[in-house]
Amino acid sequence: MKIYHEKDIDMGVLEDKTIAVIGYGSQGRAQALNMRDSGLNVIVGVRKDGKSWNIAKNDGMEVTTIEDASKRADIVHVLIPDEVQPKVYEKYIKSGLEDGNTLSFSHGYNIHFKNIIPPKNVNVTMIAPKGPGAMVRRTYKEGFGIPALVAVEVDVTGDALDQALAMGKACGFARAGILRTTFKEETETDLFGEQVVLCGGVTELIKAAFDTLVEAGYQPEIAYFETCHELKLIIDLIYEKGLTGMWKNVSNTAEYGGLTRRERVISQEVRNEMKKILKEIQKGEFAREWALENQVGRPVLKRLREIEKELKIEKVGSKLRKLCGLEK
Ligand code: NAD
Ligand code: MG
Ligand code: MG
Ligand code: MG
Ligand code: MG
């Protein structure tokens, strides 16, 4: 694994370059401000007189339309939501890309799945922080940064990697470390992680355990605390100290019970299903399904959102989060 630090990166490659940050949301605002404060020549491209337009103006940024920013810039850094990128790219960005320009992203999805097909004569790069925009900005101001991934899909100028790394350094990421990856690896592992563990796996694990207790006659409030609320404490321990560190911090009973039962919960059958889900991602089947779902107005997503809202765990959870002062 190649990891780049501040001393490995020369920001000189960006000295005479104009960087257009397209979009001024979570990542757009944070990365644009950090790069500007690091002395780079940054302009912001957003929809005229939209909310972002005013926010960027108030931050003292040079603001213009997406079309104009893309035309003027040497590096176009696309930080609008992934699902609107293909349309906005076709309409406002593509025509501004000139020979030897760089098209840059913070997620590989649209390039990897060919929802965006750039012209052959531009660099295609990625610099992707491992955290939300607010953290990107806060840590930068504190004199540190969060780790990020860097990747180069196309290098026509011979210094595409240097440019992406320099943008990362300007954002503060090199103070922590910038890890080398590819568009394929970043995109496929991101989808797999969110489907199998972070979003899909975790919520279904919580639901299944909660339902088991409630069906067995235990009080839903107690079930919620044991199967959902306390999860954060355990995750925080794993985040800070690793699996071993977590085991050291729970009781011996919890440690023994957990270690001897966990493979019955996440069984070989579950692992086989994970492999199938990964295959669907790798073959582009998931991406096609999601594109189709978007084309017809997201009927499945809308229905699933409604079902989720009505779950018993959601009603009980809301009440208890109020008791804990977590929710108003
Ligand atoms: P966001 O939702 O915060 O982006 C909002 C911005 O996009 C606003 O300026 C808005 O005006 C603009 N926008 C929205 N729809 C638009 C449209 N139809 N036309 C023109 N502009 C439009 O986006 P984000 O979460 O910052 O994500 C940007 C990129 O960064 C994505 O590729 C995402 O995968 C990646 N990323 C995000 C995070 C994160 O934590 N949010 C972390 C790593 C990478
Ligand atoms: Mg240009
Ligand atoms: Mg992710
Ligand atoms: Mg994702
Ligand atoms: Mg307990």
TrEMBL record:
<feature type="domain" description="KARI N-terminal Rossmann">
    <location>
        <begin position="1"/>
        <end position="181"/>
    </location>
</feature>
<dbReference type="InterPro" id="IPR036291">
    <property type="entry name" value="NAD(P)-bd_dom_sf"/>
</dbReference>
<feature type="binding site">
    <location>
        <begin position="24"/>
        <end position="27"/>
    </location>
    <ligand>
        <name>NADP(+)</name>
    </ligand>
</feature>
<feature type="active site">
    <location>
        <position position="107"/>
    </location>
</feature>
<dbReference type="InterPro" id="IPR014359">
    <property type="entry name" value="KARI_prok"/>
</dbReference>
<feature type="binding site">
    <location>
        <position position="133"/>
    </location>
    <ligand>
        <name>NADP(+)</name>
    </ligand>
</feature>
<keyword id="KW-0560">Oxidoreductase</keyword>
<keyword id="KW-0413">Isomerase</keyword>
<feature type="binding site">
    <location>
        <position position="190"/>
    </location>
    <ligand>
        <name>Mg(2+) 2</name>
    </ligand>
</feature>
<feature type="binding site">
    <location>
        <position position="230"/>
    </location>
    <ligand>
        <name>Mg(2+) 2</name>
    </ligand>
</feature>
<keyword id="KW-0479">Metal-binding</keyword>
<keyword id="KW-0100">Branched-chain amino acid biosynthesis</keyword>
<comment type="similarity">
    <text>Belongs to the ketol-acid reductoisomerase family.</text>
</comment>
<feature type="binding site">
    <location>
        <position position="194"/>
    </location>
    <ligand>
        <name>Mg(2+) 1</name>
    </ligand>
</feature>
<comment type="function">
    <text>Involved in the biosynthesis of branched-chain amino acids (BCAA). Catalyzes an alkyl-migration followed by a ketol-acid reduction of (S)-2-acetolactate (S2AL) to yield (R)-2,3-dihydroxy-isovalerate. In the isomerase reaction, S2AL is rearranged via a Mg-dependent methyl migration to produce 3-hydroxy-3-methyl-2-ketobutyrate (HMKB). In the reductase reaction, this 2-ketoacid undergoes a metal-dependent reduction by NADPH to yield (R)-2,3-dihydroxy-isovalerate.</text>
</comment>
<dbReference type="GO" id="GO:0004455">
    <property type="term" value="F:ketol-acid reductoisomerase activity"/>
</dbReference>
<keyword id="KW-0521">NADP</keyword>
<protein>
    <recommendedName>
        <fullName>Ketol-acid reductoisomerase (NADP(+))</fullName>
        <ecNumber>1.1.1.86</ecNumber>
    </recommendedName>
</protein>
<dbReference type="GO" id="GO:0000287">
    <property type="term" value="F:magnesium ion binding"/>
</dbReference>
<feature type="binding site">
    <location>
        <position position="251"/>
    </location>
    <ligand>
        <name>substrate</name>
    </ligand>
</feature>
<feature type="binding site">
    <location>
        <position position="47"/>
    </location>
    <ligand>
        <name>NADP(+)</name>
    </ligand>
</feature>
<dbReference type="InterPro" id="IPR013023">
    <property type="entry name" value="KARI"/>
</dbReference>
<dbReference type="Pfam" id="PF01450">
    <property type="entry name" value="KARI_C"/>
</dbReference>
<dbReference type="GO" id="GO:0009099">
    <property type="term" value="P:L-valine biosynthetic process"/>
</dbReference>
<feature type="binding site">
    <location>
        <position position="226"/>
    </location>
    <ligand>
        <name>Mg(2+) 2</name>
    </ligand>
</feature>
<feature type="domain" description="KARI C-terminal knotted">
    <location>
        <begin position="182"/>
        <end position="327"/>
    </location>
</feature>
<dbReference type="Pfam" id="PF07991">
    <property type="entry name" value="KARI_N"/>
</dbReference>
<comment type="pathway">
    <text>Amino-acid biosynthesis; L-valine biosynthesis; L-valine from pyruvate: step 2/4.</text>
</comment>
<dbReference type="GO" id="GO:0050661">
    <property type="term" value="F:NADP binding"/>
</dbReference>
<comment type="pathway">
    <text>Amino-acid biosynthesis; L-isoleucine biosynthesis; L-isoleucine from 2-oxobutanoate: step 2/4.</text>
</comment>
<dbReference type="InterPro" id="IPR008927">
    <property type="entry name" value="6-PGluconate_DH-like_C_sf"/>
</dbReference>
<dbReference type="InterPro" id="IPR000506">
    <property type="entry name" value="KARI_C"/>
</dbReference>
<feature type="binding site">
    <location>
        <position position="52"/>
    </location>
    <ligand>
        <name>NADP(+)</name>
    </ligand>
</feature>
<dbReference type="GO" id="GO:0016853">
    <property type="term" value="F:isomerase activity"/>
</dbReference>
<keyword id="KW-0028">Amino-acid biosynthesis</keyword>
<dbReference type="InterPro" id="IPR013116">
    <property type="entry name" value="KARI_N"/>
</dbReference>
<dbReference type="GO" id="GO:0009097">
    <property type="term" value="P:isoleucine biosynthetic process"/>
</dbReference>
<keyword id="KW-0460">Magnesium</keyword>
<feature type="binding site">
    <location>
        <position position="190"/>
    </location>
    <ligand>
        <name>Mg(2+) 1</name>
    </ligand>
</feature>
